[in-house]
Amino acid sequence: MKRLEDEFAIETATEQYVTRRQFAKFLVLTSLGMFVGNLWILVKSWFRRPIAYPEQVVAGVGEIGVGEVKLFAYPEPADACIMIRTAPDQVVAYSQKCTHLSCAVYFEKKADRLECPCHEGYFSVADGSVMQGPPPRALPRIILRREGDQVIATGVRL
Amino acid sequence: MMEYGFFIDPSRCIGCQACVNACSECETHRGHSLIHVDFIDRESTIATVPMVCMHCDDPTCAKVCPADAIKKTPDGVVQSSLKPRCIACSNCVLACPFGIPKVMIELEQMMKCDMCYDRTSADKRPMCATVCPSQALAYVPLDVIERERREKPTNVFHFGNQRVQTKVFMMVPPDTSAITLDVVDYMWEPGA
Q1: Interface residue B71 vs chain A (CB under 8 A)
Q2: Which domain holds residue A26?
Q3: Residue A60 shares a structural domain with residue A14
Q4: Is the domain of A35 the same as that of A60?
Q5: Residues in chain A within 8 Å Cβ distance of B68
Q6: ipTM over 0.85
Q7: Touching check for B118 and chain A: CB below 8 Å?
Q8: CA pseudo-torsion sign B101, B102, B108, B109
Q9: Among A42, A108, B63, B189, which is least packed, fewest CB within 10 Å?
Q10: Is A79 within the bounds of a domain?
Q11: What is the DSSP letter of A104?
Q12: Is residue A137 part of a domain?
């Protein structure tokens, strides 16, 4: 209670103001804290082990036609993904979550791009990179491998 | 020079409202009258009492202010709320034992009598005291009031258990030293 009365003095004569030196100390200590925190994050990232992704059959080779899509979940059941057959012998797959605010992206065949309807974020079908709009990063790409007549997901490249 | 004091004598008030109009001409709150001229008991008497801020030594209004907007200057004057801080919450209006603060809804700010700070800080009398024809509001040296008035000035009030000492004086009968009020006394109604 005493401290409260000191900080919020009723009388103007006893009001306390933050001095320039006090403020400078606060700034220096805060930025020092930020710096140490960033170092910690850097060191942690050096020692991070790569995540082990499971292998999962997502489709048969001839299952979808050229320009068609198939939705699947990988690596967890909650992680929605979209697979597109761009050419007779080529399929690509990306996470369906827009990197902006996680709306589901869809394949717009006419414009040949992935579109997010929420804020008109467009992604390239070729590599998932951002073509326009607010998304800050490219869509995470699902790494696919062909094995016999099956298409298998083997990992996620963020 | 003897220090000037502000004295309120309700028994001298004639209810002319001159102070109300003079108040609104003060430069610090131009256009807003911050004085109260109240009927004491409208039903049975025409007696009125002018109330200016008493400028408490330990101002209740400032103590209850959640926004730290009410400040007291070194000369003992409790100022109007600071415009950038006041949130017009009316805490001070409810807390003030004298009923002084006014919340100006259109300004979203509490304003109260600041004893015409621009005038009194420059050794001039407050607007209301300059116009009061019966000197119910008087701004004079303490020795003058003691010499010229039968009543005695006091600045100690008891509101229940709360003791309030103020910068402004109230004129009371000569044998009284402090004004003691108990809110419960005023809840009694004749015939009830």
Answers
A1: yes
A2: 4-46
A3: no
A4: no
A5: 8
A6: no
A7: no
A8: negative
A9: B189
A10: yes
A11: B
A12: yes
